[in-house]
Structures are given as C-alpha cells and as structure tokens.
Specification:
Helix content: 40-55%
Structural class: alpha+beta
Distance between the termini: 46 Å
Number of helices: 17
Largest sheet: 6 strands, antiparallel
CATH topology of the largest domain: D-Maltodextrin-Binding Protein, domain 2
CATH architecture of the largest domain: 3-Layer(aba) Sandwich
Radius of gyration: 24 Å
CATH class of the largest domain: Alpha Beta
Shape: globular
CATH superfamily of the largest domain: Periplasmic binding protein-like II
Strand content: 15-25%
Order of helices and strands: HEHEHEHEEHHEHEHEHEHHEHHHHHH
C-alpha cells in the first residue's frame, strides 16, 4: 500500500517536472498604455494590439496624444507602446528622442509598403496638376490652400517647411490644419464640385478606393522617393522588452500588411470601436493568430493562443 502511494507520488512529481514552467510577468507590466494619435491606421493597429493583450490577461488602455507628445510619453515612461512611427516622414521628429537612448524603435516594421505624400483627385492630375512643381501654377484654382491634418503632425510640418522656404514656389500658400476626418470632408466636397484640391494622402487608407486620387510626382526631396514610400515602426521605452519580455514579444510579432490595415481602417472610419473591429476581423481571420502569438503567453504564463481564441469567441 505504502509502496504504491510512493510510486504514485513519484509519478505525479515526474509529470509535474516535465511540464513547462509558467512565468508570469511582473505586476507592473499588466497595465499597457498605448499611444493613439487620431489616425485611422494607428487606431486600427492599436485596436488589434489592445484586443490581443486583453485576451492575454493584460489591462490595455489608450492615451490620446499628438505625434510629438506620443514620443515624449514613451521617453518619459508614461506610454508603453506607440505603433505609429512613420519613417522617413517622422525622422526629424524622432531624432531628438533617439539621443541618449530616450526611446527604442523595434527593428522590424509593423507595416511595410506604405506611402505618404501629397495627392490630388485624378481629374486634377489630368488637367495638369501632376507634380509638386505644378502646384504653384494652380494657386488661384486651389484658393492658395494645401490641406493637412492635425496640428503637430509630421506631414503638416513638411508642408509648412515648403511654404516657409518658398520651395516649389509655394511661399504664398496657406496650410489648412484640422484632422484626418476634417481633411477628407474637404476633399469630398471638392470632388463633388469637381474642383482641384491638394491634400496629404497615404496608404494604407480607404481613401485610395473611396476616391479616384493621384499621388503627385516630384516630391522626393520632401517626402522621399516612390511617392513617400514608408515603413511604420513600433516604439517602446528602452528597457521595456527587458522589464516586460512577453508583451515585448507580442509587439515584435505584430506585423500587418497594407491589405489588412485597409480592411480594418474602413470600419474604423465608419466610427466603429477599433477593438470591436479588431475582434470581428480576428474571428474572420483566425489563422494569423498563430504568427502574432508565436512564443507569447498570457500575463500569468499560460498558453497565449488558446486564451486569445477564447477571448474573441473562437
């Protein structure tokens, strides 16, 4: 009797030792603060990150901020992750934060194949407004205005620099700042009236399918080559991956495509909650979870994939 109990106990001990050790992250890692800057693409990707982290047992929340404030928050330890560093257009903004290791840019972009530069309705391009060098000739028809988005945005800064430096003959123009939604309302109004309008355009974004637009040539010196070809990176505090390695692994795994972001953004622009959008999209596209959650556990060290699948209702 006693021998059987001893053998059973030994068997249970061996079985327990054979199981992988569960390693919870420090309690300080459970709250995860994501910067959100009011752009549909960042709202969409942040919504996915928050949905996944919530399913893993973390406590995500978003902090609304302008681009410079988002980087400042990461540097000061008030924000844990910002998924919206567009390179190269934000390089001049990011440079001071990189000094003395103020922030860390994760090495693999969360989006490749993006673009960001000035655009016009295609009918305006067909009328001769095809490049940055053409804008000045259309000043009267444009009302001397170039449309940007929210104040402090990197694209707005580039437009203002062109105006201040009279680059491409834009010295007499005025930049109109509002928001992404406000700019698109103005574009839609101009298109209804068949008037020319010059505005910040980018991909991924549903504007590329909702409107017939053309990206202007000749802006390589300002927005970079190939119509502002861009990569989008995730930024974290320098020690974040050391302090919170599991969440760091998730953030490194999160890599999107232009197609995925466009699908998510369309719903976000319809005023749907980004986390609801993310949950719905993930239920319809569950295969991607294996890649995004590779090597990722729950906050308490359990199987991450199973936990997230339960969280989104699979």
């Amino acid at each position: 009797m006693n021998n059987r109990l001893t053998l059973s106990g030994a068997a249970l001990l061996c079985a327990a030792l054979a199981q992988p050790a569960l390693a919870a992250e420090p309690a300080s890692c459970q709250p995860v603060r994501f910067a959100e800057i009011g752009w549909a693409d960042i709202a969409a990707t942040t919504g996915v990150a928050m949905t996944l982290s919530e399913g893993l047992g973390y406590q995500p929340r978003k902090v609304m901020a302008s681009v410079p404030i988002a980087f400042t928050g990461v540097k000061n330890g008030q924000i844990d992750a910002f998924l919206g560093y567009w390179a190269p257009s934000m390089d001049s903004i990011v440079e001071p934060f990189l000094k003395n290791d103020g922030i860390k840019v994760l090495p693999t972009p969360n989006l490749d194949g993006a673009k960001y530069t000035l655009a016009v309705p295609t009918y305006a391009a067909e009328a001769g407004l095809k490049s940055f060098q053409d804008i000045a000739r259309f000043k009267d028809a444009l009302g001397g205005r170039l449309y940007g988005i929210e104040p402090g945005n990197d694209g707005n800064l580039l437009i203002q620099q062109m105006i201040d430096n009279d680059q491409y003959g834009l010295g007499g123009f005025r930049m109109v700042e509002s928001s992404e939604a406000g700019m698109l309302v103005q574009v839609q109004r101009a298109i209804r009236q068949k008037k020319p309008v010059v505005f910040l355009g980018w991909a991924p974004h549903p504007m590329n399918t909702q409107f017939d637009i053309t990206y202007l040539d000749g802006g390589d010196d300002v927005f970079g080559p190939d119509h502002g070809a861009a990569k989008v990176f995730t930024v974290v505090p320098p020690d974040y991956e050391t302090r919170c390695p599991n969440m760091g692994r998730l953030l490194n795994n999160l890599q999107f495509s232009v197609e995925i972001e466009s699908q998510l953004m369309e719903k976000v622009l319809d005023k749907q909650d980004p986390q609801v959008v993310a949950r719905t999209w993930l239920k319809a596209n569950p295969a991607i979870l294996e890649r995004w959650l590779d090597g990722v556990t729950t906050f308490t060290g359990e199987d991450g994939l199973s936990a997230v699948r339960r969280h989104i209702g699979l």
